[in-house]
# Entry
Amino acid sequence: MQTQNPFLDEFAKLTTAAMGIAQAAGEEAKAAMRAQADRLAAEHIVVRPGLFAPEALIVEEGQPLSGRAIHEGLCVVQDEASQLVSLLAGADPGERVLDTCASPGGKTTALAAAMRDRGRTGSCIC
# Structure
């Protein structure tokens, strides 16, 4: 189904493709994160690159939620679909962005990173 919004049309295509790949692979979903792989490796967490989002890391082995990395804010648990939302929004340095569906704020922090901390982000929980 096509809409009048090219962003939504592209997001729908990517989501449909991702679901198809997951179903074809016949595997259960694994945790996805945004982090620096070397920091996770130090905690014996094995990751591989995601399929669609350039910063996505898929956890293959280990417990990222019980170690130092998560507690010190060195990684963020965020599925690839959410990472794609931030990417497709196309926030550039100097812009103002309002995330109206923010909880716990992963997309907001990804947007701030995309703007290289030059701009303003706001968020609210609806």
Summary: The chain has two domains: 1-89, 92-126.
